[in-house]
Structure of Nuclease HARBI1:
Amino acid sequence: MAPPKKSKKSKKDRKLKKNLSLVPVEPKAADSDWWDSFWQKNSSTQDTSLSNDEEEGFKYFFRVSKKTFDYICSLVREDLVSRPPSGLINIEGRLLSVEKQVAIALRRLASGESQVSVGAAFGVGQSTVSQVTWRFIEALEERAKHHLKWPDSNRMEEIKSKLEEAFGLPNCCGAIDGTHIIMTLPTVQTSDDWCDLEDNYSMLLQGIVDHEMRFLDIVTGWPGGMTVSRLLKCSGFFKLCEGGQRLNDNVRTLSGGVEIREYLVGGVGYPLLPWLITPYESNGLPASISAFNAVHGAARSLAVTAFSQLKGTWRILNKVMWRPDKRKLPSIILVCCLLHNIRIDSGDILQPDVALSGHHDSGYGEQCCRQVDLLGRTVRDILVKHLLHSKQTAAPK
């Protein structure tokens, strides 16, 4: 078959076409009224009590107040605006505002729902949710570093004072714990390293928290098949402590002239070290040692509760992650920890039903580490005597 003949055009038509200026069709203005649309669409599908309180509803969906949300937007705005917005439009053809992009990312992290479900709630496609969430994670990881850092000496003195006031432990700098982030992996990526004792594929997260359950240091990216004691020893924090560059500042002189160094409290899964104090392990302990274990457990519960709040608030960490990119997962975990700290730093009160009702590592038994450093044992014995002396001194005569 012969190709179709070209239609003949008059000189007038060709001249008219030549003089036309080709103006690209641009999307409408940015979607600035995203919250009204989102609230109208989604408030009725959740707890009925939310329908009358937009402020509480906002925190329900995004885990932070509107004021904190605006602050988060200010941190990432430059990055989200400067990058080409190719494809970032909703079903009405409007560009996604920075606020809507942040809302999509926060909802994805807070709910742990699929990208399809989150996209449906905002009127965008799955690929947009994926692209927006990752852009947000990259931006916040870079722009919010100051919300997760080791305290300077003045701040550390405040932390130690608050912990002693609450638990009676002098010179204590925080609590440490670890948790598993469970995931599924493609067959080609499975290995014994990533398979933990509960036969789940997982990635470990270790965190050190202060008296307000703010993360001071985290370590992640390591396979869940490791023990928490092994993870500790692989961390840069361990190397700094062993080299005298962390937890080695002000020595505290107790009554009787006995000195006590800085330290953390941790569970039986950790080694007993001069700067990491674990509880006594046997039954039938003397009353003074049982009392120490109770105080130690209360202080250590700060880290346990912090992880329950972290996983309860940013539930993407509490659900089984479907074939995540193991190179990107540490960034997702870090950003959730940054958001946890930002909420605390902003004074946002956590809604009572957000934190996990059970343990943050439900189903995992605590492995016992048998490593005992003699200096660590000495520090622990000093703390037992100090608590006993404080109790006797405070008792009415």
Residues 1-8, 14-29 have pLDDT under 50 and may be disordered. The longest strand covers residues 172-184. The chain has 13 helices and eight strands. The radius of gyration is 27 Å.
